[in-house]
Each structure stands twice: as C-alpha cells, then as structure tokens.
Amino acid sequence: MGPPGMKQTDLTLLEQLRITEFEIENRQRLFMISDEDVRLIVEARSIVEAGLDALVDRFYDLQTSVPEIALLIGDAETLGRLRNAQKRYISDLFSGVYDIDYVNNRLRIGLVHKRIGVDTTLYLSAVYILKALLSDLLSEHIVDLNRRAKTLAALEKVFLFDITLVFETYIRSLLSEIETSRKKSEQYASSLEEKVKDRTRQLEQMARTDPLTGLFSVRYLDESLTRYLRAAERRLEPVSLVYIDVNDFKEFNDSQGHQRGDEILRAVGSAIRQVSRAEDGCFRYGGDEFCIILPNCDREQAQKNYCDRLVEELDKAEQNVVLSIGIAQTGPESYASATALIAQADSAMYQSKAEFKSCPQLDGAELPALEADQVTDEALLKQK
Length: 384
Ligand SMILES: Nc1nc2c(ncn2[C@@H]2O[C@H](COP(=O)(O)OP(=O)(O)OP(=O)(O)O)[C@@H](O)[C@H]2O)c(=O)[nH]1
What we know:
This protein is of the alpha+beta class.
C-alpha cells in the first residue's frame, strides 16, 4: 500500500500490486514467452478474428448450460456485455502486446470475479473451455503440425501469464477482506473491553457506596483506615476517628415509620458530607452508625472543627435528632491498628451515650468533662 493515510482508491490496481513494466517482463521471462511465441500468436490472429463471433457464442452456450454460471450471469444484458468483453480479451490476446494496459485489464477481471462471487474453480473451468475452443479453431486452420504445436504452446504460456494476474487480484482482495474483518473484530474486542471496564468501575463504585446515604460502605472501612494510618505514620501526623450513632433511632422508626428513619439517616449523611474535607473518609458503619476518618487531625481539632460543626449542620435539617459521638486519636508517637482505633472510638461513643441516657436533660456543654485517663479516648456527647 501507499504512504500512511493514503486510501486504497487513491492507487491504481497496478500500483497497489506493485506491478511495473519490469515486473511484467520478469513474468514473461518466467513463463518463457519468447519473441517467437509472440510472433506465432500474432500470425494466428486472422484465423481467430474470422471465427471470433462463432467461438464466443459457443463459449457462452457451454457456460450458460451450467446452472450456477447462468445464475451468476443473471440476464441477457449482462451476457451481452460479457460477450463483448470476451471478444476484446481474445483480440488483445492475439495482438501480441502484453503491456501495462493489458495487465491492468487482466487484474480488473480478477477483481470483478471476486466481487460478483465467481469462485476460482468456475474461473479456471471457463479458462479451460476458452483454451480448448481456441485450440480446436487453431488446429483446424494451422495445417503444419510443428507450427500448430508451437502456436498452441505459446498460447498456453500467455494463458498462464494471464491466470497469475487474475489470481493476484483475487488473492489480494481475499486478503484485504480478512484484514478488514480482523480490524472489525479487534475494534469489537476493544469496545467490549471498554464496556467491561466501565461496568466494573460502576460495580466497584456501587459496592463501595452505601446506597441510602451515598457515603462509603463499611466493607471498605478496615482496608481504608489501614491505608490512612500507614500514610499518617510516614508523615508523623495524628489521625482521628469519629464514631457517630443516632440516639433512640429505633424510636423514630417505630413511631414515624421506616421511611422517616431513612430520611433521618440521609440527613445525617448529608450533614457529614457538608462538613467533611475531600481528604476525610466518611463511612456508614451500619444501621444508624457512622465512622469518619480525619487525617492530620488531633482529638481537639476533631471536636472543634468537625463534631461541633456537624451538630450545627444537622440541626439545620433535623432539630430533634441527637447524635452520640466518640473520638479516638492515634499518632504521632505510636499508632494503633485500624481495628483497635475503631474499638476505641466505639467505646468512647458508648460512654457518651450512657451519660446522655442517665442525664438526658443536660446538653453537651453541661456534661461532666471526662478525664483524659478515664477512658482511652474521650467520650463526647452531642446533645441539643
Ligand atoms: N429506617 C431505617 N432503619 C434502619 C436502617 N438500618 C437499621 N435500621 C434500624 O435502626 C435501628 C437501630 O436501633 P438501635 O441499634 O437499637 O439503636 P437506637 O434505637 O438508636 O438506640 P441507641 O443507640 O441505644 O440510642 C434498628 O431498629 C434497625 O432496624 C435503615 O437503613 N433504615
């Protein structure tokens, strides 16, 4: 083919197949077509011209008697065109000029045969019949046996020369069909691969997300927290884990219905998203519980910059919802495991809840302050 970007239709058949004058001469040499062969063929021309119409009629009588050939030819007009083309071919054959034009016409025949679906067996049998008819005609008129044999041998060589050209385009056109379907199946495979990747991404996203709140699902909490802890350890930064539980959530469900319960959980989720930074990890732990990982954040900052703001934010949407919140900090001196940190934050949350339950009329500000060594992690109650 030509330079990249060039279309097949920009090139002639000869250019596509790289058949040059030199290549034509080379082929003639390979089939040993000598000047004498060409001369003998040209000398037989008058015999052929005189019998041309009858010969072509006979040829098509034989061809159309084969049902599959008659079907391929199809109609009288096509048959008429084929007769003329065949006459031109025989005239060209006996002109003795096997140049670029001649070759180009032969190549075109291969292409047309391929296009209309003439298989190679039918083509070869037609060549055989034509050659037999021409042999009969020439044998009838060339009396000198030696000359007759030489003329028929010369004809044989030119026929072979022609057949190779026809097959050349035939094969090339088959190869380009294979190439086209290979490209198509490659495209199909890569589009399929893309679809599978997209779907996998979607499924992963779905698996990672809690559908009700849009926060991350608990399934990834351990794995994710471990990653946060490793990163914090490398940078010697503290990490805080905030454990949140909705107080008396069951009551909302029981008295106002499950849908109302869902609405509250969504409101908590949305308040969490509102106050979280992009680098925080927000998880629904299950039921009415939530876990937030705050990287590079100590307990005090978690309380002031996160928990207080979260309570304020939730208050805008739900005035009667109270959260119990526990905070556990780890690092920068030493680092707890993910499981231990979750357990600490959970127990801090429980302690805070217990205090709220024993003294529900107090709000957060009035709650007795917890001693730092009283619990591993400070328990906090956020109450409105
Ligand atoms: N509406 C709704 N309810 C849920 C969902 N998941 C869990 N629950 C319910 O949430 C309730 C949680 O109740 P508990 O664990 O007893 O907690 P609580 O009522 O908040 O009690 P305390 O934590 O002691 O204040 C249960 O009744 C669950 O059935 C959910 O996705 N939607």
